[in-house]
Write a structure and sequence with these properties.
It is a single chain. Helix content is 40%, strand content 16%. The chain is of the alpha/beta class. It is globular.
Amino acid sequence: MDESIPNRYRLDTDSSATLALPDGRTLGYAQYGLLTGPPVFYLHGLPGSRIEGALFDAPAITPRARIISVDRPGYGLSSPQPNRTILDHAEDIGNLATHLNLDSYAVLGISGGGPYALACAAALPADKLKAVLIICGLGPPEVGKKGMDWWHWIGFTIGFRYFPWACRWWFSRETIGRLDLTDQECFDRFQQECSKAKAKAHPKDIPALGDADLIRWIVRNHREAYRQGFDAGFILDGKLISSDFGFRLEDIRQDLLIRLWYGKDDTSAPQSHGEGIAARLGPNARLRIEDETHGSITWNWRVRALEDLVEVM
């Protein structure tokens, strides 16, 4: 795509960098917002990449936050980690925090990044991790699938775990998964699909489907997500999120402030997941439900949610 065209969301990789981890892997990350502000690690969705943090670039300046957006293994600039667990990524975040000389920080996880935000809550040191924000984040399998649409229900029950080849085939046929297309071809086709989708879309999602800047950013984020193909990042990620997380939410420390934002009309990570997570976390969790979908809860409330996070850090 022609990145010289003005866009509300950053498409560049100027703020991207890598860290050599103790085990020899590379960890990719990018920084957005106010670099002198309170640091917030951003954990992207499924699929996603560090580019996703650009969604919080301009908003981050309002609450004066420093957004550190991290590629999970197999995505973007981060090396694959074939036998990884959800908790392993919390260790990566801890190593990055040390590398950046951060005395304290918060974590923000969206959608598929929700499980990893919970892992950070379970594993990172209390004197460092001050607060956690999860927006429309997926919960562990034991919270159930009430409110999910059929596609997400199938994907997170049997798809990623038992039929990864089918998931790979399906997503590789989607326009934003077509690695044989140029970025511009991908954008042109996806914009046309979004325009056609307006007729059947939820009213809350219609503005996004007509937003060329947002569509261009979504394409850029997905192209980076699939930079190394599908298996090492996306497919393995889906399998991990569909399986036992390897830790109990009930065991997360009770003094950690955790904010949960969910949409009533979200059929990807439904309201029931927010309720199930909050019930298991106990009194340290604060659940907020809005009249939003999976996408609109982020587009419409990201500034307010980030402000809440910064206030409690």
